[in-house]
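Hello Y.,

Per our agreement to keep a running log of every chain we model this quarter, I'm adding this entry. I've kept the format consistent with earlier entries: sequence first, then predicted structure.
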Amino acid sequence: MTATLIDYKPKFPKKAQTKSSVSNWRTPKEIAEHFRTTEATVSRWGTLPINPLPRKKIGGKVLIDLHEADKWINEFGTQY
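Predicted structure for the entry above:
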């Protein structure tokens, strides 16, 4: 009895993540240190009813893209 190898290709290939896209994600604590504020302030920014700080919950952790946070601060930060 011989085994036959099957070339399996997934129906939907996984999206490749580049090193730079993965390394841009930061915790609220790291974002607070970056902007020299408190973690509570960063959390408040993320829950604002109008123009909240963009964030994602990944694997039970809240993560924020550093570049998006910089853009958000430049555009809306002076309002808060």
